């Protein structure tokens, strides 16, 4: 089913790319762990958006299925990740990502 | 083929004894340990008797096959036992003398530590020795051959706390290795030539081959077998381990290093007589080595003061006589001497043990003397052996020695004369030992006491066998093989041999009984010659300088500091160092800084995308 004046798929993809790039940039630049964590969620959802867009364009259900998997993984990751962040904060009283480097060398 | 006689019981009984004493012996009382040891050997002696009486005349050998041991292509090696007339003699000697020496050892070892360990080893020796003589193929012989070497090593080094005992054990084992190497090479050659190791097959095939005028394959096999025999039977140049082997307890010296194990070399030569008969060059070598050994060892025996050393060199010398017989194709005479020697040399050693026991460990004859009245039973039994080894007529030693020398006379005249002189020397040094030990005044400090019945009993049995054993065994032995030259009139030769023996005794009596100081002045007059013989021709020193030290130096500079430290350690440490150097560089990537990892991932992903684009995989 194709609506006549629907938004073309390229727009969704461009939006997805913009969101993904923002995620990457934030991940690399920001120093607060929570922000970095949110950037990861942003990247995941940008990918979800392109999956859904392609799924709609190609009339195939696979992309939407994938999205559900990604959401499940993201939920699990959020649970684990937030738990780690909490523990890190309790131990170091800091959320600076540069302080968490005891595995170096 | 007669019905099965369960020959396997003969060696297995001592093995069970060895296992029981070895595993449980420490917790058992001495009584039980000695009962196990003696009964296991007694059982095997009685079983031998039972088998031999059931087998009768043994016109054809009796063989038993138990199972196939090794199957490789066309080569099939089974665990087969066989009894023929040669094995019959060996079985009787090994189990009979072995039994008596076990009984003796119970008395001798009474005060020693490691009572059960001793009997466990001794029974283990019996197992391997019986395997050796019963085996029907060369490989099974080799199993026994190596096994008796092991038992010998364990028993020479029995006194664990003495360094010289351990050293002597190692020396025996290592020198025997050289011989064993020859033996294994001989086996390889036999497999290549005959495709089998089974006695029946090999000897049947060899019998069809012609006598080799020049060195050929049979000569090579015979010589390599003889190398093995040289190691085990202490012939030149491998005899050096036997005198040192006296570091073991005296019953061991009597059983292993005089009566049984050291005769294994003679046994294998007699067993392979078909091969030796067709290799005249090898026979000559056997004769020369035997003669040389007999002379060298006899002269060393004259100068030694340690009573066991004298008898050890005597053993080496007598083994030389046995090989002389084999070299003259008088195999049955050689085996005859094995039998009579087993009796009288066992008495000599056990008697020496009894003397040492009486003097609480004294072995130096200069500290003995006059023991005749103090330990009369030991003295009386030793007299039998003394007269037997000296070749006095009426004793068994004379019978076999006469036969050997007459056979040697048939081969070569000059060897006969050297042999006669050596027989005279033999009589001289044994008489010297007897006179120094039992006559004159007592020169020691310990208080001698006669040995218990368990020691004198076996001594008496063996002493009587030293006298009569030769007459009992003569027909059994001569049934073995080709008729020897002993039949016929050799009156004048026999007279010469007997005269040589009596002359030796007389000379010893003159030097050590009537003119006490004479031996010292003779030694002084001979000067450097005497020193050389007293130092055993410095053979040990020569081996030390020519072989042991170069090998040690080579091992240290080439194998240790070169091969091991530089090459092997170099490679191993080099691998480690390389890995850690690479790791040192890669370590810098691992900054522990999460955003920098992310940067690497982004850059990597970008690189992959660009790569795809370039090769046209993006679309």
List the helices and strands and how they pair.
The complex is a heterodimer of chains A (105) and B (619).
Chain A: H1 9-29, H2 33-58, H3 62-92
Chain B: H1 9-24, H2 30-55, E1 62-72, E2 75-83, H3 85-108, H4 115-134, H5 138-156, H6 163-194, H7 199-207, H8 217-232, H9 241-244, H10 250-259, H11 264-271, H12 273-277, H13 280-303, H14 307-327, H15 331-358, H16 376-390, H17 396-411, H18 413-438, H19 453-478, H20 491-514, H21 518-526, H22 528-534, H23 539-586, H24 594-615
Antiparallel strand pairs in B: 1-2
Helix pairs in contact in B: 1-2, 1-4, 2-3, 2-4, 3-4, 3-10, 3-15, 3-19, 4-5, 5-6, 5-10, 6-8, 8-11, 8-13, 10-15, 11-15, 13-14, 13-18, 14-15, 14-17, 14-18, 15-16, 15-17, 15-19, 16-18, 16-19, 17-18, 17-19, 17-20, 18-20
Key structural traits:
heterodimer, A: 105 residues, mainly alpha, Helix Hairpins, 3 helices, elongated, B: 619 residues, two-stranded antiparallel ribbon, 74% helix, 3% strand
What does this structure look like?
The complex is a heterodimer of chains A (105) and B (619). Chain A has 105 residues and is mainly α. Chain A contains three helices and no strands. Chain A is elongated. Chain A starts with 8 loop residues before the first helix and ends in a 13-residue tail after the last helix. A two-stranded antiparallel sheet of chain B has the order 1-2. In chain B, helix 3 packs antiparallel against helix 10, helix 3 packs antiparallel against helix 19 and helix 13 runs antiparallel to helix 14. Helix content of chain B is 74%, strand content 3%. In chain B, 50% of the residues are buried. Chain B contains 24 helices and two strands. Chain B has a domain of 79 residues. The mean pLDDT of chain B is 86. The longest helix of chain B has 48 residues. In chain B, strand 1 and strand 2 form a beta hairpin. Classes of the chains: A mainly alpha (105), B mainly alpha (619). Chains A and B meet through helix 1 of A and helix 24 of B.
């Amino acid at each position: 089913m194709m609506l006549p004046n629907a938004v073309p798929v390229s727009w969704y993809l461009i939006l997805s790319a913009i969101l993904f790039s923002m995620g990457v940039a934030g991940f690399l630049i920001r120093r607060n762990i929570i922000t970095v964590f949110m950037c990861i969620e942003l990247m995941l959802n940008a990918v979800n958006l392109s999956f859904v867009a392609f799924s709609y364009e190609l009339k195939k259900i696979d992309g939407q299925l994938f999205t559900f998997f990604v959401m499940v993984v993201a939920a699990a990751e959020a649970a684990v990740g937030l738990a780690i962040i909490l523990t890190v904060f309790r131990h170091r009283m800091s959320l600076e990502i540069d302080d968490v480097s005891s595995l170096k060398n | 083929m007669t019905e099965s006689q369960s020959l396997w019981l003969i060696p297995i009984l001592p093995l069970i004894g060895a296992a029981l004493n070895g595993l449980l012996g420490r917790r058992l009382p001495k009584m039980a340990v000695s009962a196990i040891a003696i009964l296991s050997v007694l059982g095997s002696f009685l079983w031998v008797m039972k088998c031999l009486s059931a087998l009768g005349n043994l016109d054809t050998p009796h063989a038993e096959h138990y199972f196939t041991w090794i199957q490789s292509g066309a080569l099939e090696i089974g665990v087969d036992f066989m009894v023929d007339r040669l094995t019959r003699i060996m079985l009787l000697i090994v189990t009979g003398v072995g039994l008596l020496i076990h009984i003796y050892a119970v008395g001798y070892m009474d005060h020693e530590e490691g009572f059960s360990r001793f009997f466990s080893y001794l029974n283990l020796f019996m197992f391997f020795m019986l395997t050796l003589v019963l085996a029907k193929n060369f490989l099974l012989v080799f199993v026994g051959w190596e096994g008796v070497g092991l038992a010998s090593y364990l028993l020479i080094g029995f006194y664990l706390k003495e360094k010289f005992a351990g050293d002597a054990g190692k020396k025996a084992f290592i020198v025997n290795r050289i011989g064993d190497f020859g033996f294994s090479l001989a086996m390889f050659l036999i497999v290549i030539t005959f495709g089998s190791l089974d006695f029946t097959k090999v000897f049947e095939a060899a019998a069809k081959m012609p006598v080799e005028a020049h060195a050929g394959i049979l000569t090579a096999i015979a010589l390599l077998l003889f190398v093995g025999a040289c190691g085990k039977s202490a012939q030149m140049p491998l005899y050096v381990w036997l005198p040192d082997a006296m570091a073991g307890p005296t019953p061991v010296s009597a059983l292993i290093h005089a009566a049984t194990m050291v005769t294994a070399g003679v046994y294998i030569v007699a067993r392979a007589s078909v091969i030796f008969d067709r290799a005249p060059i090898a026979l000559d070598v056997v004769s020369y080595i035997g003669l040389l050994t007999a002379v060298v060892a006899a002269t060393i025996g004259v100068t030694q003061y340690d009573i066991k050393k004298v008898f050890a060199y005597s053993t080496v010398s007598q083994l030389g006589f046995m090989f002389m017989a084999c070299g003259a194709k008088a195999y049955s005479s050689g085996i005859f001497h094995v039998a009579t020697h087993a009796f009288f040399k066992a008495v000599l050693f056990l008697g020496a043990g009894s003397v040492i026991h009486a003097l609480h460990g004294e072995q130096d004859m200069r500290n003995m003397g006059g023991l005749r009245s103090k330990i009369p039973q030991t003295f009386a039994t030793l007299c039998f052996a003394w007269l037997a080894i000296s070749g006095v007529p009426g004793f068994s030693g004379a019978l076999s020695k006469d036969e050997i020398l007459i056979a040697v006379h048939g081969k070569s005249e000059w060897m006969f004369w050297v042999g006669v002189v050596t027989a005279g020397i033999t009589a001289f040094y044994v008489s010297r030992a007897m006179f120094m030990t039992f006559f004159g005044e007592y020169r020691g400090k310990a208080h001698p006491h006669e040995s218990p019945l368990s020691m004198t009993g076996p001594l008496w049995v063996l002493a009587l066998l030293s006298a009569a054993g030769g007459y009992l065994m003569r027909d059994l032995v001569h049934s073995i093989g080709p008729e020897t030259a002993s039949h016929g009139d050799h009156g004048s030769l026999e007279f010469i041999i007997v005269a040589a023996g009596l002359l030796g005794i007389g000379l010893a009596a003159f030097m050590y009984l009537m003119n006490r100081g004479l031996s010292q002045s003779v030694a002084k007059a001979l000067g450097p010659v005497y020193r050389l013989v007293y130092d055993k021709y410095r053979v040990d020193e020569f081996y030390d300088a020519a072989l042991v030290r170069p090998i040690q130096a080579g091992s240290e500079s080439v194998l240790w500091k070169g091969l091991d430290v530089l090459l092997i350690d170099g490679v191993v440490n080099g691998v480690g160092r390389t890995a850690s150097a690479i790791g040192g560089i890669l370590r810098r990537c691992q900054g522990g800084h999460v955003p920098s990892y992310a940067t690497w991932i982004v850059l990597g992903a970008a690189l992959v995308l660009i790569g795809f684009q370039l090769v046209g995989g993006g679309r």
